[in-house]
Amino acid sequence: MSVDLIALNPIFNTRSSKFDSARKMEITNVMEYEALAKEKLPKMIYDYYASGAEDQWTLKENRNAFSRILFRPRILIDVSKIDLTTTVLGFKISMPIMIAPTAMQKMAHPDGEYATARAAAAAGTIMTLSSWGTSSVEEVASTGPGVRFFQLYVYKDRNIVTQLVKRAEKAGFKAIVLTVDTPRLGRRESDIKNRFILPQNLSLRNFDGLNLGKLDKTDDSGLASYVAGQVDRSLSWKDVKWLQSITPLPILVKGVLTAEDARIAVQSGVAGIIVSNHGARQLDYVPATIVALEEVVEATQRRVPVFLDGGVRRGTDVFKALALGASGVFIGRPVVFSLAVDGEAGIRKTLQMLHDELELTMALSGCRSLAEITRNHIAAPWDPPRVGSKL
Ligand code: GLV
Q: Is residue 64 part of a domain?
């Protein structure tokens, strides 16, 4: 694939013939979608999805850290049958790869969250809808059956939160994914330079009726100003209890990076933990999620499932996360970029490629089921040397 062949096309959602010919070239991994999306999307929109906070050290590290973990494959095991299925919060899914919440998906493609919901359902996996979707909980539910989670930002006005959670329950969402790393928005410098704003024809549909569906123009990132105005900076562990008191849905806390917080999360009765650094968009110089994962898993003493979000681009990444104790992973940017390039078909292909890569990784490592993936199938840089050991 050569992205050089693609003409820059500044007009939203139109395609040049060169772009079409590039699209016909075979995409063989999910990273290729990002280059194509960059060519296709207006700069403000691509930058919003792509960027991390400040120096973007964690953004790079989310990927680089995976490459420092190596395999210890086992051989001569009959891998003629491989089972990737798993169960998350009691729901059986086709693979341990789920869709993370990403905001404002109609900026990427007119079908936005509708396409994501359909692609996830077709692949037999879970989609998480962002609070800041450009489609509402009811609209996403109208796409048909599928197991879906709802990501929640807690607004200062708790009536808004209560109403929204009730609407998500009624629309059939199965869990609340509570984002806990965003008392203020991280400093994403391209959004500041671009004066990021939601395009005129779109709104944060869950908040339309409340007059909170638009981002106002500011001298800053429009989203940073919106967060400063609406999101509750005082959010604390007591609010997890409050959330539990207003909904029977299980709560996953998303944004845990330390053993200390993992222990409090377990004591607070959450249903699960998502180890996440918000796609490296909040605090820069936090570790890659694949590095933070193991201490969180250990701290939970396996009392709740732990999931990983951040930097997953390959089936090998998924395998490494499972070997370090994750019960599954969530993918964000690969969904947005494949959506931008090819709508629902793009996301389906992304999910299929990651599925097939994970299956192949398992076969080549001698694992026939997810339960057979162990810590001994990988070597991490923080492991003690094996030479001379009795293992
Ligand atoms: C939304 O959650 C964002 O981080 O931009």
A: yes
